[in-house]
């Protein structure tokens, strides 16, 4: 029998096969499904978990609500338990966070129920044929043909094998390829399928497992996964290490007697304080004992034939990505078929064209499948505590992992999920965009990231050389030491007796006396007006940078990271020079943001944003202005200089104090939300902060430029660029002048690279659209026109706006 030219032949009425059939039907593409069993949705004792990526595609197909309703109890809480059933890590807001971040819950239901829902949504049910077990396939120049055990022949343009891990389509495809092109498939792959664990999975009823809870039970060389099901059902998986890794034909197939033998070994295992494994098994309605292969095949296609689902990529069930990956691969294949049909009808495509479609499908999916396979394998090893190290991690590290670490790890798991290109994505509120909603998929820094670390570390080393080695060689530090010893700063234009006490704490006063000695010539050298002008320009240029350090220190997602304490970094660069310390900070900030999904994660907000500008004005700008006022006594000037030194730390302290005071006075206005959803309430304050500090820095820069152009006493070249940093200086004023020149040049150079790296990070995140070459030219022009301080403020202004406008927010 020949069915009249179905365009796509699907072998297997599985999740993969019926998902693909539904997708093709939605696009008006002819298909036929050949299922070997007499029933489409037999109950074989298996459950399936559907995660946000899979539900998003099912939502596009109009059946996600049916799946969620059939599951009845989406996973609300996740618990990890030890061998005594005691919960050592619990995630009570799992369901809330999952839906808020990714738009959909995680649900569990019978596999047969999901298959039935897919079948019910297919309108052309006459295209779904049962009891049609494939026995041979043959690729032709214009079509592919399939023959079933019943003697029927079906022809079409594409053959898709969604027939599971023991795929007949894969076997026959390999046989055909070996005859015509033995190099197409790696012959070693026939025995490459590995198995480390076996599993008894089943369904029980009447078990006192809290609804909406999923529990993982850790044990040595075995583990349990226990999700609650709809109604009175509980699903369970007993995963057991078989003792050695086996491959291919050595993989065992278990009998019911072998299942009972393993059950007997684990009969008294504790699942929860009130449930043992025996309770699950005695109340089971179905159970199956099988091995757990895990493998992503090297090639999924040959000519007009491709495998999808478990036939192409088989994962550990622990992460629930097997069925979802089958749906995703079906979506990717549909996308490529539809795209090709826009150029030519399917029956008009040559074998080379079809092969290109199938190759593109695998290339789009293979990297993600390898990543998911590795993640599932690693987690299974951890839960089975397969080594002394993993046992230590499970017992002494895992219980202390913060929730934030876990939910951040969801992003590379769920966000890269495929969807159907031709069907609108439903407007589900969520804070994390899927990668296909972005302008481009986020990518890692790769080797460039390591290069940036190296360059910033090199800049810090150069800073040390130019500030401290040069200061020693040119005699500046010797002159400082001499002034401290004599208690007198004496120069060609300055003679000032040094104050000895500021705080009454000698260790602090010693540091302050040294810093005051360095600053006095820079502020009071009336013989060289370029010197105080240069210092004022330097300090105002640094204003936006200090603002940004403070912002990043108070940003939610930076808590407990290397950049979480702006005060700490402020102390460092006040003592060792910002030109030397800023590159180290920039390297630390790059390390903190190294994850490719960093910029699309929640936690962008800065709760203390409204207090940073007032703190910056009071703690930094006002003390800076006071430095350059005319004071009646040298003693007062030294006190002003001394108490300017901790200005960056004071800014952090004032921000914290103002924030705490506000929360006490206006508790309802500052109460932290229990939801992880980002708000944009901080954006107006951050915009103002960047605008104000950037404007001040720009005014300082343009003022300097005009002064250099109009005044014969001020030379921009002499003011900004030292002639020879290592040449011996005649006076302390000359040495300090060179020191601050180098400090300014170093921080200016490192800020340029930081801005460029930050813009590149935004580009690779997929959020904004721009050309890096134009950004580079724009940075150069901005440095010249408005100066480095204003440029940094502008970059951070843009960065903040880009991070706040994620596609997921548009669904709110």
TrEMBL record:
<feature type="transmembrane region" description="Helical">
    <location>
        <begin position="535"/>
        <end position="554"/>
    </location>
</feature>
<feature type="transmembrane region" description="Helical">
    <location>
        <begin position="566"/>
        <end position="591"/>
    </location>
</feature>
<dbReference type="GO" id="GO:0004497">
    <property type="term" value="F:monooxygenase activity"/>
</dbReference>
<feature type="domain" description="FAD-binding">
    <location>
        <begin position="7"/>
        <end position="341"/>
    </location>
</feature>
<feature type="transmembrane region" description="Helical">
    <location>
        <begin position="611"/>
        <end position="631"/>
    </location>
</feature>
<keyword id="KW-0812">Transmembrane</keyword>
<dbReference type="GO" id="GO:0071949">
    <property type="term" value="F:FAD binding"/>
</dbReference>
<dbReference type="GO" id="GO:0016020">
    <property type="term" value="C:membrane"/>
</dbReference>
<feature type="transmembrane region" description="Helical">
    <location>
        <begin position="450"/>
        <end position="470"/>
    </location>
</feature>
<feature type="transmembrane region" description="Helical">
    <location>
        <begin position="643"/>
        <end position="666"/>
    </location>
</feature>
<keyword id="KW-0472">Membrane</keyword>
<feature type="transmembrane region" description="Helical">
    <location>
        <begin position="744"/>
        <end position="762"/>
    </location>
</feature>
<dbReference type="InterPro" id="IPR036188">
    <property type="entry name" value="FAD/NAD-bd_sf"/>
</dbReference>
<keyword id="KW-0274">FAD</keyword>
<keyword id="KW-0285">Flavoprotein</keyword>
<dbReference type="Pfam" id="PF01494">
    <property type="entry name" value="FAD_binding_3"/>
</dbReference>
<protein>
    <recommendedName>
        <fullName>FAD-binding domain-containing protein</fullName>
    </recommendedName>
</protein>
<dbReference type="InterPro" id="IPR050562">
    <property type="entry name" value="FAD_mOase_fung"/>
</dbReference>
<keyword id="KW-0560">Oxidoreductase</keyword>
<keyword id="KW-1133">Transmembrane helix</keyword>
<feature type="transmembrane region" description="Helical">
    <location>
        <begin position="774"/>
        <end position="798"/>
    </location>
</feature>
<comment type="similarity">
    <text>Belongs to the paxM FAD-dependent monooxygenase family.</text>
</comment>
<dbReference type="InterPro" id="IPR002938">
    <property type="entry name" value="FAD-bd"/>
</dbReference>
